[in-house]
Design the sequence.
């Protein structure tokens, strides 16, 4: 992992991001429209989280001439925290379609708010850049547990991408994994008594999949 462990939070305030997020927050937004907006906003977030990926020069031939042009040194691995992470994953893969994908299944105990793991399967991630995706960074417990599993496999660089974050979740993640930068579309106000982000947008998984 990188030696620099200064906690970093990137809040993406692009007008298209903020506009689409506003539409997602509306209680009347249907699951179909919510999924569409999540895919669209994830395109923009992926652009930001991959902004500084390393490139190398290769020799290519255009219709006009030969030239040296940049290509990615290596595409990142994307790890989705189930189940809601797959809503972000769909959009990320449209931008990086050949990325390898892993999943970690976690659910939150409604009494303790602790993360319980029920599934984990990753492609090889040693010495690779890994982007972990989950729409909501609420308590930070699920994200922290997922990052524990990812780091155990020895990646070179880990980044966390979410749609919404609460200050409590950011603080928790930074306390446990200060070397993992966070990208999010918004930093909301607080968590309520049952651990939901306020003002938030409700349960992201329920809104993606139309469940309650």
Sequence:
């Amino acid at each position: 992992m990188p030696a620099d462990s200064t906690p970093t939070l990137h809040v993406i305030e692009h007008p298209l991001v903020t506009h689409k997020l506003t539409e997602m927050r509306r209680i009347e937004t249907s699951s179909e429209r919510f999924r569409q907006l999540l895919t669209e906003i994830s395109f923009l977030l992926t652009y930001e989280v991959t902004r500084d990926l390393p490139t190398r020069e290769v020799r290519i031939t255009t219709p006009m001439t030969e030239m040296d042009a940049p290509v990615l040194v290596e595409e990142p691995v994307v790890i989705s925290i189930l189940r809601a992470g797959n809503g972000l994953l769909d959009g990320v893969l449209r931008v990086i379609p050949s990325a390898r994908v892993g999943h970690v299944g976690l659910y939150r105990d409604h009494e303790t708010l602790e993360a319980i793991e029920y599934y984990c399967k990753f492609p090889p991630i040693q010495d690779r850049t890994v982007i972990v995706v989950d729409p909501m960074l609420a308590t930070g417990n699920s994200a922290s547990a997922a990052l524990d599993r990812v780091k155990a496999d020895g990646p070179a660089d880990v980044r966390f991408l979410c749609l919404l974050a609460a200050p409590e979740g950011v603080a928790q993640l930074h306390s446990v994994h200060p070397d993992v930068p966070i990208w999010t579309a918004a930093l909301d106000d607080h968590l309520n008594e049952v651990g939901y982000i306020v003002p938030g947008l409700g349960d992201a998984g329920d809104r993606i999949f139309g469940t309650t």
Observations:
- DSSP finds six helices and twelve strands in the chain.
